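Cross-check.
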Amino acid sequence: MKWTYRIPNKLGTSLLLMGIMALVLVNNFVERSNSRQLEMAFESIYADRLIVESYILDLSEQLHAIQESLKSNSSDGKASWKENLSEIDRINLLYLDTKLTEDEKKHFGHFESLTWEIGQSLQAGRLVHANTGIAAALRDLQLLSEIQVIEAQSILSQTEQLFRSGSLSSRFEIGLVILIGLMVQGILFASKSLQIRTTPTAENLN
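Predicted model, tokenized:
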């Protein structure tokens, strides 16, 4: 620690320490930003992917229910598929409230148009056309489900990068704190040594 005895002035040392402390503060802000991004990523996975996947499952069940009601040819079949179509419209509105990718918007827009056509076909008694539309709508739902998986994997990849960045930032901050501690310790040690050397002895007083 001989460098501590050769410090030209306290101002330079103070500026150096302040610079290191500023780096620590900046690093702290970066970590907070990363934490917020991680929180948003997990919220997105839940609200825009897992919840949407449940909507897709519900829509699929409603379409399959319409198919079953058409096969049964029961007297209450019309009332049944009307209720199914109403539920599909309700779920579609919930789906639109989530964050959609451009590819997702395209497929979901096509799905909405198909469900409208299915309703029109059923009202007109064109059951074959309605069944064809249901099959196409189910294919759209399969594509939408695959998009959820791809987007969730992309978000998870981003979170892994944030975790790695946060780990490096933490190590950097710890290193700076250790450096500050060593510098302060060195300066204090040098100051005590200088005080001992400059203390007048009893012989000098005589």
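Helices lie at 10-72, 77-96, 102-124, 127-198, 202-205. Residues 14-71+87-96+103-190 form one domain. Passed to J.P. for a second look.
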